[in-house]
Amino acid sequence: MQFAVMAPGKPKAPEGDLATFQRERFTHDGVAHDVYRRGKGPAALVLTEMPGLSPHVLGFADRGVALGCAAVLPSLFGTAGRDPLRPRVAGALYAPSSMARACISKEFTVVETYGFRRDEIQGW
Fold first, then answer.
1. What is the pLDDT of residue 77?
2. Long-range contact list for 119-123, CB < 8 A, 24+ apart?
């Protein structure tokens, strides 16, 4: 079963392949994330919303590479390369589990309690 999310008549966004990207591990302040890179040239940082680096996000990064940029994609949520629109075993739990890891309630509490503090925002 496929889920249609786009409007009728609109072309589907291209899908990229995670295997074509180089994976590196980046650690800062005790927190580690995978970072995927591809291409040469000026860096184009691609930050995603949840649930993360889907094939369509990778396809978007491929467009930047085709224009002569180096695409840099930190994997902050979910499973890199997974398509959230294609159901899998326990697929219904994928989005909630991605969101649980990214809970930002601490950040809201800090801003509410102390106001905007540059030192609280600079960390990874």
1. 80
2. 123/28, 123/29
Give Dmax (Cα) for the chain.
49
Give the N- to C-terminal CA distance of the chain in Å, as an integer: 38
Dist CA 80 CA 35 (whole Å): 10
3-state helix, strand, coil in the chain (%, to 5): 30, 20, 50
Give the per-residue SS3 of 39-80: CCCCEEECCCCCCCCCHHHHHHHHHHHHCCCEEEEECCCCCC
Residue with tokens 């649980």: 100
As averages over each run of 10 residues, the pLDDT of the chain (124 residues) reads 53 85 91 93 89 89 95 89 69 58 56 60 48
Q: What is the pLDDT of residue 118?
A: 55
Phi/psi for 8 (5° steps) reads -60, 140
